[in-house]
Amino acid sequence: MPKLTGQVVKAVRVQNTDLGRIVGKSLKSLRELAGVTQMELADRLEVGQAAISKIENRGDVQISSLQKYVHALGATLRIEATFSAKALAELSIGRAFDADLQDDDQLVFPIFGDELFRAQRDVVLSIRPNYSTKIMQGIKTVELRRRFPVSAPRGTIAYIYSTSPIQAMVGSAEIAEVVKLPVADIWKKFNKMAQIERTSFNEYFSGVKYGFALRFTNVRPFNHPIDLNELRKRFAFEPPQSFLYATPLLRTALQDEYSNVSY
Q1: CATH number, domain containing residue 190
Q2: Domain named HTH cro/C1-type: which ranges (predicted)?
Q3: pLDDT digits 0-9 by tens, 89-109
Q4: I want to staple 175 with a disulfide (CB 3.0 to 4.6 A). Which of 49, 119, 156, 241 is the partner?
Q5: Buried (b) or exposed (e) across 145-183, using 16+ Cβ within 10 A?
Q6: What is the pTM of this model?
């Protein structure tokens, strides 16, 4: 089967009356792109060929069925909500959502499917002082998250922002690995490395089935932490609820001005 990993199939804007027809046509094109016949796809899904034909002719399909169809072709289904700059201004969304700023005038919030890590970007992580201190001391080697792009490449730099009452950028670490597991498995495998109590762990992951573990290496505390006032004044920085991508200006300053770090 042709590998579709990394491929982008362009979507089109349609009227509501055309939506079912266009969805079906798009699915058919995707199947043909993968070099799979209706009969082959039906065998993989353990349904009759008529069921595949119905989906492609009508496009009237539930998300769960759509996911199975796409997965059977070796692809991954992702659904996102995209806010324009105008919508953001009217709704005053600001940073209420810890969402991915794809470009200057759009904010994309993932609804379905794992997030994709934006290439060649470093991140800023907001971490409570009791945990950030242990990271800088090398005691805490794993950071736990309810959501994080599992595709983040090895070596991605995570700048550590220590929240109130410290309110400062205190250092950096390299992300050696991002692991997605059921919450119960996250606890069994990483609770000691994450330096977290069971009660706090349960509260943090309440309501979600999967968690993410970020394993740190090459931790580098800043000799002089950068306080929030300076971050705001120089870089228009606002602390994220969870994480954000470092802007080019902030990234360059942290690399050039604060490269003299203690080990």
Answers
A1: 2.30.130.30
A2: 27-84
A3: 565 544 444 444 444 444 455
A4: 156
A5: bebbbbebeeebbbbbbbeeebebbbbbbbbeebbbeeb
A6: 0.58
